[in-house]
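Two proteins were folded this term; both appear here.
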Amino acid sequence: MKVRKAVILAAGMGTRMLPASKVISKEMLPVVDTPAIQVVVEEAVASGIEEVIIVTSPGKTLVLDQFEKAMELEHHLEARGKGDILSMLRKSNHPVKITPAEQAEPLGLGHAVLQSRAAVGAEPFAVMLPDDIFDCPRACLRQLLDAAESNDAPVVALLKVARSEISKYGIVDAKAAGERLFELRGMVEKPAPEKAPSDFAIMGRYVLTPEIFDLLAQGKPGAGGEIQLTDALMALAQRRRIFGYEFEGIRYDLGDRVGFISAQVGFGLKRPELAERLRAYLRSVICS
């Protein structure tokens, strides 16, 4: 299984991060000084992806504009000898082939994936949710791709979550199949902790096969008229083996206020020019 394309779902309303996301889409909110959408695209590039399909809602163009050249700004920086800032800016200029797709109505995660069908074609592909940002020794998506290629099967990212968090996620029923690898036997969307089949939650990285599109197209809308990706994954699991991979690294939920702040701290501490001052500030807050 060779995966060349990744689909990033950026059509959501961003209601969890209002009022910050009222005008600026949540995918453009920064992780330190880099928009979340760019962090996710950079992960795709680091994983060997050749084309990124970005699914947006009508009129939501900022996430696509992020990867266009800003010639006037570049000329301004060049004229003032700000080469370091210019180099950083140019990193966002088409780091990979970017293909737009549109979700005309907010009809669920599965429906958003379905809108990428024409761009993906009949080949395996990755799905990336920009709410989930990862700090891993090896790109999170690359870890999943290696597992998918080794087993010639779809793979989803798994994270063990606290019992109090179980009802927020899709939880899997799984059996061990190797180091960090689990074969999925079922999935339950946001179960009560006492009814959860495990404490493994699906995170926002998936490697899927194109047959998922037919299952999404045939899927019946659930609550709120939405087509859920989890339902299609459960149907796919009836046809072939699906695996979960417990990725190595840290995940930040940018759709959660504490997760968003934690990402700023975590990624800020990785920046040599920021780390010392940030540590000093954190010590002063903790000790005060």
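Next, the second protein.
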Amino acid sequence: MIKNKLTGMGVALITPFKSDESVDFEALGRLVDYLLKNGADYLVVLGTTAETPTLTEAEKEGILHFVVDKVGGQIPIVLGVGGNNTKAVVEQIEKVDYRKVDAVLCVTPYYNKPSQEGLYQHYRAVAMASKVPIVLYNVPGRTGVNMSADTTLRLAREFKNIVGIKEASGNMSQMDDIINNRPKDFVVISGDDGITYPLITLGAVGVISVIGNAFPREFSRMVRLALDGDFKSARKIHHQFNELFDLLFIDGNPAGVKSMLSMMGFIENKLRLPLVPTTITTFEKIKKVLDKLSVKC
């Protein structure tokens, strides 16, 4: 059942680059092994955190096949898709071999700011084309448009293959509305590490996490404790990461988590333009927090 596959901590997988900006598949393999051994419930491949807009089509295909082969069916794979041209998104969905992909994560169209009806019609076209379950992705801070609770619920009720939403609007009232009025098997997933704990207390089933790249064991434990109703223990872990939640995104995503992973020895601290590494100030602040958490750098 797809609901079970999307419960817990999904990780929005980063794309490691070498100093020459080529994809570092060796580092990617180490990271995937680390996540598999330390509690990741599923992986999101080629999402926003993967710097997907800067990847070529050949690189995207290579990364997807590499991760699928590396995971070997041990945990589900969710594939990030999306764009602001509905026809192109539909064509993208129709061309991909989804036999080893469990769902797609489809972001709202960005930049051109469609109306709520435009968002509905966009996802209607996507739903008609997709052969696998669809998770909506609402992240107005990046796309410039917020998908309302009414539009989300309309899509959830009308299309059986739209099975959930990654909600990163930051609007707790909106997210609570979706949770309270959703169809039985429609899931709400936190799209923001910092609000994962309170959102689970409202009825979310987990998170698609950025910080999970670096701290899969600790963060997945927090998610499981909260899902099991042990809110006191979960809250304690949540508070331990409060400072890192802010530092992760102060210079943009995935700059924060990439600096963290580079300190931990997993990857080179390399991004593709227009993204750049964190400032020295942020880097040093992250290092101090990792030292307090007893993480070897």
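The chain has a mean pLDDT of 95. DSSP finds 14 helices and eight strands in the chain. These notes refer to the second protein only.
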